[in-house]
Specification:
This protein has 316 residues and is α+β, with helices and mostly antiparallel strands. 57% of the residues lie in helices and 13% in strands. The protein contains twelve helices and six strands. Strands 2-1-6-5-4-3 form a six-stranded mixed beta sheet. The chain starts with a helix and ends with a helix.
Length: 316
Amino acid sequence: MSRTEEFEELRPLLFAIAYRILGSVSEAEDAVQETWLRYETTPTRPVSPKAFLSAVVTRVSIDVLRSARVRREQYVGPWFPEPLLTDPYQDPERSAELADSLSMAALVLLERLSPLERAVFVLREVFGFGFAEIASAVGRSEAACRQLAVRARRHVDEGRPRFEADRKERERLAERFFDAFREGDVDGLRELLAADVHMVGDGGGKAPQWANEIVGVHKVSRLLAAMFAPLMEVGVTVEPHPVNGQPGALFRDREGRILNTLSLDITDGRIQTIRSVINPDKLAHVGPVADAWAVTREAQRARRAHITEGAAAEGR
């Protein structure tokens, strides 16, 4: 097998590692490309291409994450990972575990870790690498890697999201949620939302959005019920689609361009968190991106027109 064939066979795994360390599709793709360039120019063939390439992509990702953390600390509003619609790394026996490690909630939680802790956690807890391989990848002793793993696991366990065991039940609940959303059914939405539900948006200061965070079943259900009619009036469609391995949807404008993604965290039969990514910089990999400002202005005009027409009808 040629180097190119070896690399392409392992590319899905390399991307899966890089994305979980970085939380960015574009940065993960760049890390994988840099890994190929280093592999291509290595004078001797490694005994284990998988071990070699995994180590290289991990080291590259750690370096990228260290520089990215400064930008994230200066980010406007909440920072969410770039949404991933499909994970190219397939392992049917561990599909549920891999999907949960990919969730927005899990990746936001990993932001609490140092770059080294995050890399060790991903390699050990998600992909099951041995400590000898991890030590080689991150340039630390096995003993140090064990300590990093313990520390990372403790941080993650303190805030680890709890997901429903029955993924089919999650999908059915999400389907009911989007039906109620489309119908503007406040009562239907309330039945599905947790009492302390959080609705959070990542616009990065580059797109219109509601307040950074809205909390509570009454506020969130009213906002959601009021949102869809004006959006539908201006041709926005809601396309249910898994986002980061969890139930979610893609919002598109009338031209089919991506407006934002929505993902749902579901626990104990209720929606706990609704996360929207509307920052256009984080959506370009999904496809052509809509002008969110223009769509919002048009939707607001449509809403005001409905209010005016309703008032006029009442006055007649």
